[in-house]
# Entry
Amino acid sequence: MISRIIATLLIVNVAFGQNALTSVEQDFEILVPLAELEPEVNRVPAKIIKGLLLVEGKVENRRGYFILDTGAPGLVINRVASSERLIKGRSLTKDVHLNEVLLKDVEWGRGKLQNIQVLTLDLSHLEKYCGERILGLLGYEHIKDYETHINYRQERVSWMNNHNSTIHRIRGEALQCEFELIEHLPIITLHFESGTFRFALDTGSSVNLISKKLGQHLRQFGAKSGELTELGNLANESEVLSSIIIPSVDLGGLTKKDIVFHVADMSSVQEFLGSRVDGIIGYQFLKEHQVIINYKQQKMIFLD
# Structure
């Protein structure tokens, strides 16, 4: 049986960014002048392990990898939580408990955060899964002001200025699709033979997920049964999920054939967002592409 991980994190009672966890100042600094980096602000060495996208980084004096996770609301550091000041969050189906900690500096590539209050969560099970030192999750709040360019084939991640980026214009024709941003999750529209459905984009998910209701519906339109998969989550728990193979899926003109989706309970995501979400697209959907995510313009760009 195949084992996979989904690192979606939902937190309803904590604000990131300007409404900081505490009054501690949070700064993002580019360590070299922007003029010397245009159009790229920050290129970071990366690797893909079992469907998770890891980018090199440092937390104070510890080097390792962050999981680039659009399914996480901000920066979450790998550290065992104490019993005090627990903050309640939720993975896809299970509750998790986090703490806060003040860090002097956090780096990935040429980017640096200083004097920042962050959430912590025990992610040691992700280290075992990847076989690498996992520093934490790098999520929405600290990537939203830049175009995030993910080259899955070459295992490279770059962050670019929104107003100066030209990479999607000079690499030939590009396919673009818009998304709706709800909380920290981009919601895109997928077209199946039987209709149009809403999916969240999550680079922290090594698989694609589909709701039980939609999965059952699509079996009536040619979807076939696939393999069983053991899916782990941030709560260090796992469950065995069935899967279906969908003959054709279209995203804004990008058509993919025989895509595997694992059937899961999506009620927590829908409750968190207050909106219908029929599933999640992750690594298995994106792995053949170069993808740009532009939060400001709420669009995705596929370069090939």
Observations:
- The domain at 169-302 is CATH 2.40.70.10 (Cathepsin D, subunit A; domain 1).
- DSSP finds five helices and 25 strands in the chain.
